[in-house]
């Protein structure tokens, strides 16, 4: 059996003004054909796919088509969108006979002038290979699931946890694909769309309403007729005409059951919409003082408004400003992503003490540059390998270590791990465990810092990823829409 393998991923934040380009994909690698199996392996979804099929014992020949990951950011450019359409078209045309299609997409990718990039990609795949060949689609569960995406897939499997485990998602999808190829099951799907978004503070699946919703999905899967239940709480910064949370139920040729369970899953989430909106974030100055008072370990300060893994620019300086203004004595580790600042500090040179306006270089509607005087301690190339990260080979651009009093600021040209993985700092001679507090540019991916963390404090910062979703400048989202509008029925 010959199975095509496609992995393309980008998560769009419509409130981040900087477009995502092909260079952003290239920072993590773009691969076509057999090179995918050599260069794109790690703990990603495609590894789960490959391992699950191997464990099934099926004699599968993988036919790699295209692999490209850009992480999260502003809408992708027309050039990037067209590049992947062309790569799909070219490589599928040359692939020869196929028995199935294994596709992993993020699910929340939009481009300049196109809301549903992944629906467009899936439609192209179907147009080239027809409706009869099985297509199993794996997604991030923060996907914006559209009707076109559902129409083009035979089954959909989304992440089952937050923080995500892409390998697990691919493995589950691969197991389902194996059952389809054996003729054991005939998947049918039902999905429901909700006029709902919420902020990110209740997104973790280990506790609270999200845990309850995802546990309901697992309970539904205890029925042997149910192949997969995928709740998809769309990431909250995608301003598109078909936006909103969704839930997808795949059964073994039982559409009535799929519809009934999809209704139950959607009703469960809708009934808890106000609980999903509960906030725990702390005002900035208070959060910084709390961190400085902690007796041991590293306190993680979660910069919720500048969550780079949610598509922000990484240029917020709000927590940095508070640390410096309040005269905090504890050592602080702060990441910033700013090619402009990097260029200025590189020009100044190592060992130079200089005043530079840090941050506020991309998301200028939210942040303004902050004058900071400090010393350039190190300038280094940023092509690194981070084995613990899901995409281990990274080019974060030139990296500068800049010290201002008790604060060590690590500036990069590109996102890389956004300072959310301790291993990244260690590659440049910095031990995060030596610091009192560390700013993380994420609202949920605290798992990498967990071994050295004494406490996590969510900080109520503004920005393109802010928890205050109601005040963001929505333009395309269908109305009425909760919580932007006071609606009781969907």
Topology:
Elements: E1 2-12, H1 22-26, E2 30-32, H2 35-39, H3 45-56, E3 61-73, H4 78-93, E4 100-105, H5 117-129, E5 135-139, H6 147-152, E6 155-158, H7 166-182, E7 187-194, H8 208-220, E8 226-232, E9 245-252, H9 255-271, H10 273-276, H11 284-293, E10 298-303, H12 318-325, E11 332-337, H13 339-348, E12 353-358, E13 370-380, E14 383-385, E15 393-395, E16 399-404, E17 407-412, H14 422-426, E18 437-440, E19 453-459
Parallel strand pairs: 1-3, 1-4, 4-5, 5-6, 10-18, 10-19, 11-17, 11-18
Antiparallel strand pairs: 2-3, 7-9, 8-9, 12-13, 13-16, 14-15, 16-17
Ranges where pLDDT stays below 50 over 5 or more residues in a row are none
CATH class of the largest domain: Alpha Beta
CATH superfamily heading of the largest domain: Response regulator
For the CA atoms, what is the radius of gyration?
22 Å
Give the assembly state of these chains: single chain
Residue-averaged pLDDT: 96
As for the CATH topology of the largest domain, it is Rossmann fold
What share of the residues does DSSP label as strand, in percent? Answer: 25-35%
Indicate the percent of residues in helices: 25-40%
Largest sheet: 8 strands, mixed
From the coordinates shown, what is the CATH architecture of the largest domain? 3-Layer(aba) Sandwich
Counted by DSSP, the helix tally is: 14
Number of strands: 19
Q: Tell me the distance between the termini.
A: 44 Å
Number of domains: 2
């Amino acid at each position: 059996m010959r199975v095509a393998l496609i992995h393309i991923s980008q998560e769009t934040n419509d409130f981040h003004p900087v477009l995502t380009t092909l260079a952003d994909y290239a920072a993590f690698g773009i691969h076509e054909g057999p090179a995918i199996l050599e260069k794109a392996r790690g703990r990603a979804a495609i590894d789960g796919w490959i391992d699950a099929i191997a464990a099934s014992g099926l004699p599968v020949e993988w036919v790699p088509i295209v692999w490209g990951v850009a992480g999260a950011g502003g809408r992708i450019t027309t050039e990037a969108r067209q590049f992947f359409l062309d790569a799909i078209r070219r490589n599928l045309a040359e692939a020869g006979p196929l028995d199935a299609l294994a596709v992993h997409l993020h699910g929340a990718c939009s481009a300049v002038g196109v809301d549903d990039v992944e629906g467009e990609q899936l439609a192209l795949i179907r147009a080239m290979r027809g409706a009869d060949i099985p297509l199993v689609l794996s997604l991030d569960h923060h996907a914006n699931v559209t009707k076109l995406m559902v129409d083009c897939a035979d089954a959909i499997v989304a992440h089952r946890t937050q923080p995500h485990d892409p390998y697990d998602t691919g493995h589950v999808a691969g197991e389902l694909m194996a059952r389809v190829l054996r003729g054991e099951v005939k998947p049918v799907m039902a999905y429901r769309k909700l006029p709902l978004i919420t902020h990110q503070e209740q997104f973790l699946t280990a506790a609270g309403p999200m845990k309850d919703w995802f546990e309901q999905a697992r309970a539904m899967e205890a029925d042997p007729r149910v192949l997969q239940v995928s709740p998809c709480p769309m990431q909250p910064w995608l301003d598109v005409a078909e936006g909103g949370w969704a839930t997808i139920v795949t059964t073994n040729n039982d559409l009535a059951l799929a519809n009934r369970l999809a209704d139950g899953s959607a009703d469960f989430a809708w009934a808890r919409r106000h609980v999903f909106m509960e906030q725990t974030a702390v005002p900035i100055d208070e959060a910084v003082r709390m961190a400085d008072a902690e007796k041991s370990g590293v306190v993680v300060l979660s910069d919720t408004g500048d969550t780079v893994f949610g598509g922000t620019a990484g240029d917020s300086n709000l927590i940095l400003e508070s640390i410096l203004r309040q005269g905090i004595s504890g050592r602080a580790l702060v990441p910033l992503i700013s090619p402009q600042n990097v260029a200025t500090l590189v020009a100044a040179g190592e060992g130079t003490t200089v005043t530079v306006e840090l941050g506020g270089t991309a998301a200028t509607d939210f942040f303004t540059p902050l004058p900071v005087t400090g010393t350039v301690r190190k300038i280094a190339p940023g092509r690194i390998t981070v084995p613990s990260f899901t995409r281990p080979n990274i080019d974060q651009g030139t990296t500068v270590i800049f010290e201002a009093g008790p604060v060590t600021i690590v500036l990069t040209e590109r996102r890389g791990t956004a300072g959310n993985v301790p291993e990244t700092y260690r590659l440049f001679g910095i031990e995060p465990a030596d610091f009192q507090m560390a700013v993380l540019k994420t609202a949920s991916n605290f798992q990498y810092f967990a071994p050295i963390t004494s406490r996590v404090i969510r900080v109520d910062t503004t920005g393109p990823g802010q928890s205050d979703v109601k005040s963001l400048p929505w333009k395309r989202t269908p109305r009425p829409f909760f919580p932007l509008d006071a609606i009781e029925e969907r």
